[in-house]
Amino acid sequence: MAEGTILSLAPPLAAIILCIVLREAVISLLIGILVGALILYDFSPVTAFFRAFDDILLTTFLDADNAVVLFFTVLTGGVTGILSGSPTARSVIAHLASKVRRRSKAMAAVWLSGLIFFIDDYANCLIVGNAFRGLCDRLRISREKLAYLVDTTAAPITSLALISTWIGVEVSLINDALETVGTAEYTGYGLFLSSIPYRFYPLLALLFGLLIAWSGRDFGSMRTAEQTAVQATTPPEQENAVEPIEKIDGWSYLIFLPLFVLLASSIALLSWHGYHNGAEVDWSHPLQTLMNLFSQADPFLCLLWATLISTLVAFVVHLGPLQETFYVVNRDWFNGCQGMFTVCVILVLAWSIGAVCKRLDTGAYVASLLGDDFNPAFLPLLTFVFAAAISFATGTSFGTMSILMPIILPIALQLGAGHNDIIYGAVGSVLGGSIFGDHCSPLSDTTILSSGASGCSVTAHVNTQLPYAILVGAASLICLFFISTIQINAILLLFIAVVILYIFLFIFGRTAPNNASDSMDS
Question: In degrees, to the nearest 5, what angle opens at C-alpha 343 toward C-alphas 340 and 346?
Answer without folding.
Answer: 150
